């Protein structure tokens, strides 16, 4: 079974959704036969590359609310994250274009390191307040999961995986994704948003049951309730 997850590395609900998916998989009896694939999705693909700005006032302007109201909204998200064991610092965050981070994830995938890098990028941004928006910030993160420093720098400089990121985004659009996280199981079942672990578990179980229907064989010689009596 394949679970594809479209998400962005600066989406607070995506990290929460990742933890909830992990919790669902812990209770899923067939978890060893599940492949989780992280797909690229940019919340703001129009953000200028190479530039960053404080997140708090930018979101307040975007949603037409006060900075204090947005601060309160962020505090609520931080509480939800804490319930999943995550320590967010949203009001101090900066935002930027995440295209390079997604390109790095595709490089990591070729080396079997995509899951490790996805976790590290989210942890670095939300819990350590580190930048994930430029080559110099991303190279150490790639090296930390075992990628070659020169290869990381070269791949991000020559934009080797730009087309792969664009393809992920196009696929998400074709599947009807308008936000993230967006979970798709075997390209048949979907769940949008950071759904509770219990709901994700139900979707996993339904998808598994449909993919592996119970096989009924014709009855053979044997005992019934009123036979085989001595």
UniProtKB/TrEMBL annotation:
InterPro entries referenced in this protein's UniProt entry, alphabetically: DSBA-like_thioredoxin_dom, Thioredoxin-like_sf
Domain DSBA-like thioredoxin: 2-204
SUPFAM superfamilies registered for this protein in UniProt: Thioredoxin-like
Protein's recorded name: DsbA family oxidoreductase
Lineage: Bacteria, Bacillati, Actinomycetota, Actinomycetes, Geodermatophilales
């Amino acid at each position: 079974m394949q679970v594809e997850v479209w998400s962005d590395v600066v989406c607070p609900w995506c990290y929460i959704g990742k933890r909830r998916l992990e919790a669902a998989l812990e209770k899923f009896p067939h978890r060893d036969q599940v492949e989780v694939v992280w797909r690229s999705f940019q919340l703001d693909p129009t953000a200028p590359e190479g530039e960053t700005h404080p997140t708090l006032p930018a979101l307040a302007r975007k949603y037409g609310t006060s900075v204090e109201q947005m601060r309160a909204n962020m505090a609520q998200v931080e509480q939800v994250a804490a319930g999943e064991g995550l320590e967010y610092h949203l009001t101090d965050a900066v935002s930027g274009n995440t295209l390079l981070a997604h390109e790095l994830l595709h490089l990591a995938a070729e080396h079997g390191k995509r899951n490790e890098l996805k976790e590290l990028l989210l942890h670095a941004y939300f819990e350590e307040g580190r930048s994930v928006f430029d080559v110099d910030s991303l190279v150490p993160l790639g090296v930390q999961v075992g990628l070659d420093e020169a290869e990381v720098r070269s791949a991000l400089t020559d934009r080797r995986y730009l087309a792969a990121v664009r393809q992920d985004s196009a696929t998400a659009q074709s599947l009807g994704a308008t936000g993230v996280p967006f979970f798709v199981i075997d390209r048949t079942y979907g769940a949008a948003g950071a759904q509770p672990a219990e709901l994700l578990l139900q979707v996993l179980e339904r998808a598994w049951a449909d993919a592996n229907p119970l096989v009924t064989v014709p009855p053979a010689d044997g005992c019934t309730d009123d036979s085989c009596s001595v």
